[in-house]
Amino acid sequence: MQSAKLRQAQPESSLRSLVGSMPGIGLVALVVVGISGSLYKLVSADGLVATLFERSPAGGMLSLGGTGLVVLCAWATGLGSKHGHRVWLSNLVVYGSAAAGSLFLLRYWWTGVF
């Protein structure tokens, strides 16, 4: 008798787990849209990289090299090497990407342009 009750309760618990995972699925979708939208804005024909190289190839290489140097220095100093810093940094990346994804979707809904 008890196994029959457990079998009846099982579909309800799977439905609850599906509903409970919806915010996480939404967050992952926003992060994916935020990261892919940012990469698109970076490398598109009118994006940041094209704008940097628009005036001169030397100026574009200089600005990309400077950005790379800043990233290399941050890596060399061990930014995020402690556990608390890694958690803070990963939360910043996840929620920042989700915010960017929200802005991209809002702009697409408002203007029809990604």
What do you see in this structure?
It is a single chain. By secondary structure, this protein is an all-alpha fold. The protein has one domain. It contains 4 helices and no strands. The chain has helices spanning 2-43, 48-55, 57-76, 83-111. Helix 1 (2-43) crosses helix 4 (83-111) and helix 2 crosses helix 3 (57-76). The longest helix is centred in the first third of the chain and has 42 residues, at 2-43. The model has no long low-confidence stretch (mean pLDDT 81).
In short:
With 114 residues, the chain is mainly α.
Q: Which features does this protein show?
A:
flat, mainly alpha, 114 residues
Strand/helix succession: HHHH
Task: Report the β-strand fraction as a percent range.
Answer: under 5%
Provide the domain count: 1
Overall shape: it is flat
User: Can you summarize the main beta sheet?
Assistant: none
Distance between the termini: 57 Å
The computed structural class is mainly alpha
Number of E-type strands: 0
Number of helices: 4
The helicity comes to: over 70%
- Mean pLDDT, to the nearest integer, reads 81
Unreliably modeled segments = none
Radius of gyration: 22 Å
Assembly annotation: single chain
